[in-house]
Fold this protein.
Amino acid sequence: DAKTTQPPSMDCAEGRAANLPCNHSTISGNEYVYWYRQIHSQGPQYIIHGLKNNETNEMASLIITEDRKSSTLILPHATLRDTAVYYCIVRRRSNDYKLSFGAGTTVTVRA
Amino acid sequence: NAGVTQTPKFQVLKTGQSMTLQCAQDMNHNSMYWYRQDPGMGLRLIYYSASEGTTDKGEVPNGYNVSRLNKREFSLRLESAAPSQTSVYFCASSEAGQGLQPQHFGDGTRLSIL
C-alpha cells in the first residue's frame, strides 16, 4: 500500500469546517483512500473512503485531487466530540487484511 | 445499535494465568479481526477470520489462540499470560472483500498482566 503523509496536529474552532490534508503521491490506480479516526480511549472508527470521485456521507466529505496524489477530509461543522487522531490510509484489493495506521493527525476542536 | 461488543472492558491478570477475550458483532459481517494497540506503536493484527470456519495468523500471533465460534463471535485466548501482553485489545469486523471493506471496531479490552 502507498505511503501517506499527514500533518502531526491541527486545531479547529467549534462549528467551523475542519479540512484535514493527506499526501499519497505514490498511490496506484487501483488503490483506495480511507479515513479512520480514534477518539481517546475508544476503538478506531471508520469515516469514509473513495477511489477517485469525491465522496460524502453523514460524517464527512472526501475530496480527492484529479491526479489522486492528495486528498482532504472535510468535517463540515466540527464539534468538541470530533477531537481525535485522524488516519489516512491507502489500500488495494489483496489478501492482506491488516490495517496499518501511521501517526495520523491529532485534531483538537476548541470551543 | 450495538455493532462490535467486547467483554470484559478491563482485566488484570497475574503472569501465567489464562483468559479469553470475547467479541461479538451484530452486523452479519463475514470477517473478524483481533488487534492489539500498545502506546506509540499503532495497531498490530494478531489473528483474523476471513469467514466463518477459517482463522489465520496476523503479524503477532505468538502467545494467542482464537476461535471463530459462529458468524457472530470471535474469541481470543491467552493460555499463559505474560507481562509483554499488557495492551489494549480491539476486535473488529467487516464484510468480506479482500481487504477493501471498512473495518468496524469495538471499544477495546484493557488488559494488564502483573
The two ends of chain A are 37 Å apart (CA to CA).
